[in-house]
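Issue 218. Parser rejects a valid record. Input:
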Amino acid sequence: MSSLLIIPVPAIKLARKAWLRLTGLLFLSLLAAVALAFYSYQMHHLNTALNSYKQATSQYRARTEAIHRLSDMEAAFNRYLLDGNSANLGLIQADKQRIEQLAQWDGDAQHDQLLQSLVAAEQKWYTQAVQPMIEERRKLAGGQGLPEDFLAKYRAAPQDLQLVNLESNSENAQRQAQQALQQAEDQLRWLWLPYPLAGLLMIGVIALTVSAIKSVNHLRQAAESEGDEQEDDGTEREESHGETK
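Output the parser choked on:
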């Protein structure tokens, strides 16, 4: 029975080689998984930055149009106060309607705080300054100069819409999104590198897999040969024992 516990040296070497190759295979597989996970994270980061940039660009365009519309609306309002031409009232209403439509255009516009604050400023200005002054202007006779009390009311009405600050804040938000996208792209400047590395890892995994399978087959063959030899030895002992009898 003790002879069955003895493992021949070639079998031990084969088992050691098989173990080393399997360990190398597991290590390369783990390395490939880590590299793939890191690469996937970087791609997700880039995709997030790209989506943010697209959203910021869409919001920037809506804000820019709203700012221009509000500037045109202010100009039409001032012209109406000067000449009393009712055509300017139509321009005011058209610009006002377009500005409020931009604020509700889509989900990006509805969640754009700068655009919503711009619309709130426009509505406040229209309610507190434009409407009262239009009513006052309608009471005045056409073709005459503007009386001093009317001009005093005009000067007292809220006038500063802070369009410069709104435009500056809009440009800053767009610039920040563009910088975030650029940083994400810079982090992936070696975008091509994972492909050859993945190819080398795949070749290494295949080579180690084939080697490990060969080592396991050799080990199994060695074990089977050792078993056959032990079986032959046992048969010979039985035959010798029978002849002795």
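Fixed in the parser; the record now loads. The chain is about 85% helix and 0% strand.
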